[in-house]
Amino acid sequence: MCGHDDSRLHDARHTASTVLLLLGVPERIVMAIMGWSSASMAQRYQHVTEPMLNDVGRKIGAALWGDVGSDPEERDEDAA
Questions:
Q1: Are 42 and 27 in contact (CB under 8 A)?
Q2: How far apart are alpha carbons 80 and 62 in whole angstroms?
Q3: What is the CA radius of gyration of the chain?
Q4: Closest listed residue to residue 41, CA positions, set 72, 13, 63, 62
Q5: With a threshold of 0.70, does the pTM exceed it?
Q6: Cα angle 65, 74, 72; round to 5
Q7: What is the mean pLDDT of residues 21-33?
Q8: H-run or E-run covering 51
């Protein structure tokens, strides 16, 4: 295998799949790129990151209560 560690190549597939998730690529396109025939593979390879969760939280907060996702220091400066 050209001297490459197989586990590192497998890790690269996880990374590639997670990057596609971060970019918001539709699942059907991800499946075609990754060569998956089942959508359940996304659950194995795509990993939700803390910044992704934070971004969704900010979006939900903004939808419910307005722009609550801004930096607290910026809000203090705006009030002054």
A1: yes
A2: 22
A3: 19
A4: 13
A5: no
A6: 60
A7: 94
A8: helix 50-65
